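Open question from group meeting: does this chain pack into something compact, or does most of it stay loose? Before anyone orders reagents, we agreed to write out a predicted structure and look at it together. Recording both the input and the output here so the notebook holds the full record.
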Amino acid sequence: MGFLSSIFGGKQEEETPINSYADFWNWFRQHEQGFAAVIKANGNIEKKVFDVIRPKLHQLNDDIFYAVVVHDGTVELVLTVDGKFKSIAAVEE
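Structure tokens returned:
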């Protein structure tokens, strides 16, 4: 059983290459509810969320870092370049 299947259940997802910011956000939208459920349940966030998101983002740019913020039941993905100013445009995209 595939890694994402073990998190979200169902058929194994084929490895989707991320070639553009639109590709990333399309992929993310398909999984955002599962990520939010893991975070709200205080599940294994590192393995089930961060380890899944990280390689997808790094297909675009290795300088993109992220954090998750929960406020009033809303889970937000915050992207940053952590001081790497040459990559600010990557986060803005």
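Observations to bring back to the group:
Helices lie at 3-8, 21-40, 45-58, 88-92.
Residues 21-40 form the longest helix (20 residues).
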